Amino acid sequence: MQFFKLSSSLNGSTLINFTKRTHTCGELRGSDIGKTITLTGWVDTRRDLGGVIFVDLRDRYGKTQVVFNPQTNQVVHDVAGSLRSEFVISVTGKVEKRPDGTENPSLATGEIDILADKLEILNKADTPPFPIEDEIQANEEVRLKYRYLDLRRPVMQRNMLIRHKLYQITRNYFDSINFIEVETPILMKSTPEGARDYLVPSRVHHGKFYALPQSPQTYKQILMVAGMDRYFQIVKCFRDEDLRADRQPEFTQIDIEMSFVDEEDIYTMAEGLVHRLFKEIKNIEIQLPLTRLSYKQAMELYGSDKPDTRFGLSFTNINEVVGNSEFKVFADTVKKGGVVAGFTAPGCANYTRNQLDVLTDFVKNLGAGGLVWMRVTENGIETPSEKFLGKEKVAAIGQALQAAVGDMIFLISDTWAKAYTILGALRLEMARRLNLIDETKNHLLWVTDFPMFEYDETEKRHVAVHHPFTSSKIEDAALLDTEPLKARARAYDLVLNGNEIAGGSIRIYDRTMQSKVFNLLGISQEEAQKKFGFMLDAFRYGAPPHGGIAFGVDRICMLLSGEKSIRDVIAFPKTASGMSLMDDAPSEVDAMQLKELHVRIV
Amino acid sequence: MQFFKLSSSLNGSTLINFTKRTHTCGELRGSDIGKTITLTGWVDTRRDLGGVIFVDLRDRYGKTQVVFNPQTNQVVHDVAGSLRSEFVISVTGKVEKRPDGTENPSLATGEIDILADKLEILNKADTPPFPIEDEIQANEEVRLKYRYLDLRRPVMQRNMLIRHKLYQITRNYFDSINFIEVETPILMKSTPEGARDYLVPSRVHHGKFYALPQSPQTYKQILMVAGMDRYFQIVKCFRDEDLRADRQPEFTQIDIEMSFVDEEDIYTMAEGLVHRLFKEIKNIEIQLPLTRLSYKQAMELYGSDKPDTRFGLSFTNINEVVGNSEFKVFADTVKKGGVVAGFTAPGCANYTRNQLDVLTDFVKNLGAGGLVWMRVTENGIETPSEKFLGKEKVAAIGQALQAAVGDMIFLISDTWAKAYTILGALRLEMARRLNLIDETKNHLLWVTDFPMFEYDETEKRHVAVHHPFTSSKIEDAALLDTEPLKARARAYDLVLNGNEIAGGSIRIYDRTMQSKVFNLLGISQEEAQKKFGFMLDAFRYGAPPHGGIAFGVDRICMLLSGEKSIRDVIAFPKTASGMSLMDDAPSEVDAMQLKELHVRIV
């Protein structure tokens, strides 16, 4: 028997040869019984039963039970006694059938165990700060600090494998339909429009800076001008934002651009991708083509540009019913061009006054003037608003909303945007309260025809709803000169269960039109030339019609993994304040480094 | 006939619907004759022959000839008269057999042409600064400024496609052998060791900085501690160096790490990859296993740690022949532990004195004391050194170097490192002069057993030849305590035709050993803890034995494409001073941006 312990002559170092594995810990089956094999891995658990030691040995591929029996090998058994959780070992022995009744059907290797005849301790381990198992109590900070242990947990290994699969499926898909993968620069020019850029001082060019890409938007359009025809890339993007819970300073997108296309080509291509992802990762057949809603429809039905359509509670506009009513609030709203709308919450007719007060506070916190509610009882509809609306109008509202006995009606009156946005939030709140969301469902849909611009009250200018390179709808082009806020864009989002998982547009490919849109966005001609002159120049030399889309990898992985946080599908995520707790980035740097970069901390 | 021109009502914009292609410009064959089809693309050439206009229409997939005959459609013919190079058009018509004798066998679509019945101009084009063809006169600055035009050239499209293929082959290979692709952060901690880091000021954490990774080295080792077992990633890396011709501030590597392995596993895995790349991209069958040379052998045979073995001119050490000679220079060199060695240049016996002076200057510029040369003539060996060496020694040298009549012998005497390095340069110079390099050959080999450390005279300390995480050879571990410069590392490079295309090592996975190596590198315990504490901590919790390698994607693509510059296989490369000429990065940024980052330009 060959046997290595940690050699003390090497100052406790682990610089040793070791016996290499013949199989992984997830591989052995009944058909391997009788073979002498070697496994390597981590001690998952060690149990001492009547003098015999049982070790579950773990690697990425699974677990295998190893038996150390003193009657087989006393020395090996004795060394096994020193094993602790997370020790790294190499163990050699014979594959045996487990005794009848001791098989473990929940383990792929549960039919067999290994009778150990040789044991090498490759590395020791301190007691980990949390156990290496799926359900742990550790808070996220501890998990992120000891990410190398957190990633050993089977659930995290599974998440990383789902992400790995997504990469491969995506690239094989695009390769199969003639897309070309092109890497675009990470060190690019700063052109902040929307979010802040991360900047990188140039050492060679005194006082100048690179920026990290918020997306490779300009490059992918340049690639279309370059005749690449169909481009894709899975690429890191960067935004220096004040992070919300579900954002990271660096994030990954599947970036796509195509020439000589319209929206239909993008939809077909993107639907093909999500179909493959669901089929190959979750064995779910997504029905194609996907539903499409215009932005207007999505807002007026669900109060969101990324509606969760796994449940109903869709809205009804009752402007026609109440426009001419005595209820001044409603009538005034309609007169001013606003909206009175609402939805029916099934089975909520018996909500207490207290429950209704909570919901009223909920919508008031979102800026609503109030919440009108109506109980649909066997005796008709009961509502404090009856005194203003009259019995007839109340009944007409009940009919318009198709309310049944036992339901509660909620109504909001406000401007179009506010009324529907607040209703959208209330709809989600009611779905949660009523437990209406079936987590096993996967509802995908397109939201299309977004507005080109919205007016930013802070900056006192139009800002692009998608981005400045988005084309307007052909029939709305004339509106750019007259009422730009009414112009719709050739922009589209793909929504999964209430999450935007992709967004894109058909682009402007004409220099004059691009200049006009820059102008509408308050970007001066000089600034446009300085920031985007190269694109305007490129459009001089034969730019093809083109369009594209980008998928958010982190969010899709989160949804495919059934996780609640994108941090659980990113190997080394940062905290909400942009810190890496494992290695303590960002950190202070040497004065010499800064001197070379010609910058000083203020 | 449906027909669109640029609509002047839209202010000259190209915001129009267009007829979408049914085929690409590389697709139509004889079997398509008679079909009515639509193509889109760029006007490559336009010829006017006897009233009929011929246009070669180009896209990424090829070229197709389109015929505009006034007898088919007068209006369309007239519009075709306004077409210029690089206009973007959509053209519809019937696929025809070309008249006998006018077929173009050099074109995949050369059997047919399209008789145009409809033409839409999708975008116009100014005259490009250089023609869109493979052989152009434009200097590289112009090509980089107009990269969108440069990338339209067929040779650049081919290069980008080779790169695309390399990505797909690589990932499919690693996926097929159980590797998992994991993305590692781009915003990481600054740990400069060797090259300078690019720094990114943190807005949220005043006075702190992220760094862009010089490689994901620490992360991939952490992934091994995390039990990921086999990791790969095609990843961007960054080094703020004073750029040499063949370097870029950002470059791409295929990054690989494996657990429970030794060198043999790495070699097998890497050889499998290069075998696939050559087979699938160039249809060349690389013979496996690859040759291996130790660093010592490579230096003593070829004077390089990345020898070009497509030709001979290997060296012979003649210390034994000349060590006891009267030639003081040689004898002293041998006495001091140096080397006298040289090689035979076939057919160079007739070199003129002038030619020999040029070569002597060549080696003197590299630091040699001089160049000893010997002509092998029919009358024996002629050399000025005969008066010091004597006839017998000279003959013995000729014999040792197996020189034949007509050859020239070159000898250098110096320290081991200098003698072989200078001989290595002279060997390459002679190969170029003698045109010995067969560009169709592909010679791959491993160079192994590099030294752990070299002594940096400027910094007055040991520096790692590979990197600080490299394990020493097991049998040399004791040398770390006594003569560290003699210790060999478990490090290896993969060399193709004289270019290092990959490099890696078996890593240290023990905390004590890692600390010892940091110490040898002059990294204080405090500094080691500050920079790499998280790795030393990770090694406490069961680090498996592991090793890896990284391939340089840019260089491999360059070699597979037969290009001379990596810039020809990068879509948007930077110049030697790190500038992007197309979009003018790096550039000045707004004072507001810097203020938010708490930095000031000095």
Structural class of chain A: alpha+beta
CATH-defined superfamily of the largest domain in chain A: Bira Bifunctional Protein, Domain 2
Helix content of chain A: 25-40%
Q: What is the assembly state of the chains in this entry?
A: homodimer
CATH topology of the largest domain in chain A, by name, is: BirA Bifunctional Protein, domain 2
Task: Based on Cα principal axes, name the global outline of chain A.
Answer: globular
The major sheet of chain A is characterized as:
8 strands, mixed
Uncertain stretches of 5 or more adjacent residues of chain A: 1-15
**Whole-number count of domains of chain A:** 3
Which radius of gyration of chain A do the C-alpha atoms yield?
31 Å
**What is the CATH architecture term of the largest domain in chain A?**
2-Layer Sandwich
How would you write the strand order of the largest sheet of chain A?
A: 6-9-10-22-21-20-17-11
**Mean of all residue-level pLDDT scores of chain A:** 94
Euclidean distance between termini CA atoms of chain A: 66 Å
Total of helices of chain A:
17
The beta-strand count of chain A equals: 23
Task: Identify the biggest protein-protein contact and residues per side.
Answer: A-B, 142 and 141 residues
Beta-strand portion of chain A reads: 15-25%
Q: Which CATH first-tier class of the largest domain in chain A would you pick?
A: Alpha Beta
